[in-house]
Amino acid sequence: MENYSEQEAIRRQKLAKLKELGVEPYGEKYDVTDYAADILGRFGSSGDIPEGQQVALSGRLITIRAHGKASFANLQDKSGQIQIYVRQDDIGESEYEIFELFDIGDIIGLTGEVFRTRRGEITVAVKTFRPLVKALRPLPEKWHGLTNVDLRYRQRYLDLIVSPEVKKVFVLRSKLVQEIRNYLNEQDFLEVETPMMHSIAGGATARPFTTHHNALDMNLYLRIATELHLKRLIVGGMDKVYELGRIFRNEGISTKHNPEFTSVEIYQAHADYNDMMRLTEELIATVAQKVLGVQTVTYMEKELDLTPPWPRLTMIEAIRKYANIDFDQISTDEEAQNAARQKGMDVKKGAVRGELMNEIFEEYVEKHLFQPTFIVDYPIEVSPLAKRKADDPSMTYRFEAFMAGSEIANAFTELNDPDDQRRRFEQQVAKREAGDEEAQMLDEDFLMALEYGMPPTGGLGIGIDRLIMMLTDSPSIRDVILFPTMRHKE
Q1: Backbone angles phi, psi at 6, to 5 degrees
Q2: Strand 197-198 relative to strand 392-403: parallel, antiparallel, unpaired?
Q3: What does the longest C-alpha to C-alpha distance in the chain come to?
Q4: Which run of H or of E encompasses 240?
Q5: 219 has which bridge partners?
Q6: Can you tell me the distance from the alpha carbon of 64 to that of 99, in angstroms, rounded to the nearest whole number?
Q7: Which of 23, 234, 279, 249 has the alpha carbon at shortest distance from 129?
Q8: Residue 380's closest CA among 407, 358, 409, 405?
């Protein structure tokens, strides 16, 4: 027999008593016609409530305050909380005996009449009720989110029950995601679905999760990006496509990273990275306006102004401004290595100029980019899928968008030269063979698609979770993912 806590044992005794009385503690469907917030809104904060205002609602008991043969309780449904009043004289002695077997956390359905107490609180006088669920575990008496974050993330259902502000974040997330879809659909983009299991992990620099298909006896990879499949659709003549869904990367966990996350990738034929910049800032500003009613939001006690146009800096300009290193004056790998060492950085053997430029940017520049900012023109070494710049083949037509010191979007003028793409893939393969598990694999089928001809294309990826963090003032990515990945609890 299980070792129940004192409270759990009492609840099970009450469960047995309900059954002894012939009461089903796990009821059937209950017809709900009203919700707490609607009732509170309908009758306002003052004034008389006409007699006979009948309602039917269901919800979870959050508080119970007994006063002899009458009880006040707070009932919580999907819209909020409302006070209820249960009196033996109204429902009868036997029914009140059943009500006294209820605990905080139990779910009931009820009908009643709305009235206002002498203190002015809108309340439902219960006329009938029905048990719907007997909760066998007590809710936390006190909920301190900041000191109990592990429990919050592991038991999100409790978090949602007792923390209305948490539920509000996820309601906003759903609305924001829906508005992203609405915006793209209105711009004539077509939402598509591509495979989540790939025979080759491609489209991003990341370590994949590996699984095995028994019937085919082959390894597959959970997708680290949707890019290469979506570009195949551009080749096929689907000129404006997007996919919003889960991505999987076998990486560390932090306030900005979860191994399973949501992104939207968007591709448009006959466009370039300038078009993607306009799309990024207009999409985010529009979505914020539609859902939040503003284009200036507060994040970590500072204001983020989402109003387009956003500032643009080249990576070289940003490094010059924030790290005081001028890569216009650094032309060799050796000079770049020396510059990095002078900054106290650990320089890997064989590190090249473009890689070091990116590392210096990540270390010394990103943290300064609080307001929405586009960093444009990235080194070719860290941009294997982006088109080379015509006036500087060592750089690419690529940008990343930053907000509050975090990258929230990544975009290219897409590389559509199949021979150049093959050379880039081969360089990535060499990195993998040298031990870089995040380097990309060579995808022959994708190269074949490019050889049939992909029109000039702009591509964009936006990290949905990080964006939601900024728009809901959430400090951690785990605060905006309902069930974040957690270490197994011993």
Answers
A1: -60, -45
A2: unpaired
A3: 90
A4: strand 240-248
A5: 212
A6: 10
A7: 23
A8: 358
Q: Are 374 and 315 in contact (CB under 8 A)?
A: no
Contacts 24+ apart (CB under 8 A), 159-168: 161/60, 161/76, 161/105, 164/80, 166/479
Q: What are the residue ranges in the chain where pLDDT is below 50?
A: 1, 143-147
Tokens of 264: 């939207």
Determine phi and psi for 129, rounding to 5 degrees: -150, 165
Tokens of 442: 């060579």
SS3 at position 134:
coil
- Position 145 scores a pLDDT of 41
Q: How far apart are CA 122 and CA 104, in angstroms?
A: 21
C-alpha pair distances (Å), 144 with each of 141, 147, 149, 355, 475: 10, 6, 8, 44, 16
In this structure, is the dihedral angle defined by the CA atoms of residues 362, 368, 372 and 378, taken in order, positive or negative?
negative
Give the tokens for residue 486: 């957690």
pLDDT at 283: 98
| Whole-angstrom distance, CA of residue 347 vs CA of residue 171 | 45
Residues with Cβ within 8 Å of 14's Cβ and at least 6 positions away in sequence, in order, are 101, 102, 103, 134
Q: Which two tokens mark 158?
A: 């409790």
Strand pairing of 190-191 and 240-248? parallel
- Helices 353-364 and 315-323: crossing angle, nearest 10°? 50
Dihedral angle sign, alpha carbons of residues 177, 178, 181, 183? negative
- Could you identify the residue written with the tokens 């609890």? 489
DSSP 61-74: EEEEEEETTEEEEE
DSSP H or E stretch at residue 158: helix 156-162
Domains of the chain: 6-133 (2.40.50.140), 161-311+371-479 (3.30.930.10)
Predicted pLDDT at 142: 59
Please check whether residue 100 is in contact with residue 108, taking contact to mean a CB–CB distance below 8 angstroms.
no
- pLDDT at site 51: 87
Contacts of 138 (CB under 8 A, 6+ apart): 7, 8, 11, 103, 104, 105
